Structures are given as C-alpha cells and as structure tokens.
Amino acid sequence: MPSPIHFTYLNGPDMAALALTDDEILGAIEASLAMQGRGQTVIEPRMHLRPRDTRGHFNVLRGVLPTGEGRGFAGVKIVGDFIDNWQRDLPSEMAMLLLFDPATGMPQALIDATAITEMRTGAVTAIGAKYLARKDSHVLGHVGARGTAYWNVRLLNRLFDLTEIRVHSKRKESREAFAATLERDLKRKIVVTEDWESCFAGADILVEASRLDKPEPLFKTEWVRPGALAIPYGTMSAVEIDLTDAMDKVVMDDWGQAGAGPFGALRRHVDEGRLTRETLHAELGQIVAGLKPGRETPTERILFWHRGLSLSDIALGALALEKARRLGIGSQLRYA
User: Fold this and answer.
1) Which domain holds residue 110?
2) 210 and 327 share a domain?
3) DSSP H or E segment with residue 181
4) For the whole model, what pTM was predicted?
5) 243 — phi, psi (to 5°)?
6) Which of 214, 218, 223, 289 is exposed most, by the fewest CB atoms within 10 A?
7) Taken in order 216, 312, 59, 260, is the CA torsion positive or negative?
8) Total of domains in the chain
9) Phi and psi torsions of 96, nearest 5°
10) Strand ranges of the sheet holding 6-10, from the earlier edge strand across to the other edge
11) What is the pLDDT of residues 277-320, one digit of tens each?
12) Which residues pair with 77 in a beta bridge?
C-alpha cells in the first residue's frame, strides 16, 4: 500500500507568525532575479481570467525556480485584483500559491500568498532601485496606497538614505491612513501630498502604484528629471505616451510579460511599437546577474516596469516553507 502523501498549508496567521524580515525578503528576491538572469529558471507569461459583470480579474502566474537545496519548486499563483474590495473591507488583491516538486509533480505546499504578493512586489521595486537609481537618491515620491505600496516604501527605505518620503492616493482617508502606518513602522515623518505633481516633481525615485478605473495620463513625463528613476506599475496605465521617449534606459522584470494581457503601465507603448525587445535595455535579472549594466551615469533617466514575476512568488514561498518547517509553523494536510 503506498505511503500517505501530505503537503504543508500556511494560512494568513501562519505567514504573519513567520515574521519574514526585510533582509530575508530582499535576499530571496535578489537571488531569484540573478537565477532568472542566468537562464536557470522557467517562467511563463501571466494569464488573465475575467469574470463577467465585475470590476476585477484574476492573474495566473507560473514558473519553476531552482533553490540552493534540492530541485527547487514549480509554482502556480492565482491572485484576484478587484478594485472595489475596499468598500467590502477586503484587500484588493488576495492570492493563493501552490508549490510542487518539479521532478515528480508532488504537491509541497499551499500558501496564503496575499502577503507574499505585497512583499515580493515591494522587493522587486527596491531591488530595481538598488541597481537603477542613483546611490545618493534621497527623495521618494509614491502614488498609491494599496498593499504593495507599503512594501515599496518600507523596502526602499531599507536600502536608501531617504530624507523625504512623499505619498499620495486618490482618497484622502487612504493616503492619510497609509502615511500613519508608515510613520508608525518606519519611525519617521511622511509627507502627505494633495496631488500627483507635488508628490513626484523633483523626486529621485518615482513609484506609481495607482488604482485607476481606466488609462489616464496623470503621471507627467516632465516630472522625471535627469538622474531620476521612474517605476510605474499600475494595472491601468497612468503615464503619458512620450514617457519612454524621454528615457535613457527602459528595464523590465521579464520581457515575456510585456504582451501578456490587456493591462499594464506600458501596454500602449508596446502595442504601438514604442517599446520593443530591441529598444528594451535589459531585464532586471540580467543586470542583477552582472550580464548587463544598470545605471552608468548620474544623469540617466531610467524607467523600470515590473508586471510581477511568478519566480518572485516562488522565491518567497520557498523561504516561508523552509522557515515554517524550521519553526514548526503550519499544518500538514493529507493529499493521498
């Protein structure tokens, strides 16, 4: 009779109990990007599932990531993105991650990936800035107050000597609550701005994580000064069509995601041929792996567009699973 097969289940409270540190998160994401850059991973373009008569959709992300021990993991994450969830006191993005043994297909873990989605997005933003922003960047402008926004600011603050952090979002109550949470956790003053321009103009690092109903060019190209790094990743584009024309370099997390689905900050730029594989400077993983240069001069304007990587989800899922096994956190569920 075959032996029983079990897999680990990590729910939301389990993930909170793991208390992944900033350095653990950044280290796992940077290592996964380097593996991607060296061609050691498998990644498929995301897919979208769009229910009828709702203002939202599901993203399905898939990939295979080796690890330092054993064969690594194949992973599939399904994350909902529903813009009106704040009215129901729910996160706009909720996710589940499945990890499998890539050699046998045996299930290894089922993980509440809502926090993972937020953490890995913030970590990719921060690692992108590590290689693409000026080392002396001091002013951060951030538009958007969703879950990923918190980790953007927190992890950028970890890597840079920021003297000013400005935040803005559409709803007054959301931006003030966001600033209060950051002030509590980062132990520093946060500047709440009333509009996009006062948030972005003159900033060294400009992060756009807005929640728009439809594409609208609210992020003006003229606000990206020489030497600045722009990181737009809203689901609906908020940038002007000439933004890529003004950049010295455009970098992506994965070019394969550029044409995946109808969404994304540079969706129109790709469709109209303003951004192509030939005009793309590099994927971030190639830069992290040392195969292509990142920032080369203090005056370069650089744009980093990240759509979100399954590999980043798998990297943090693997980190969480290893730490959970070490600390005895989580439940064992029988599969067969």
Assistant:
1) 6-116+311-334
2) no
3) helix 172-186
4) 0.93
5) -60, -45
6) 214
7) positive
8) 2
9) -130, 140
10) 42-49, 56-65, 73-82, 93-100, 107-112, 6-10, 331-334
11) 999 999 999 999 999 999 999 999 999 999 888 999 999 999 99
12) 61, 97
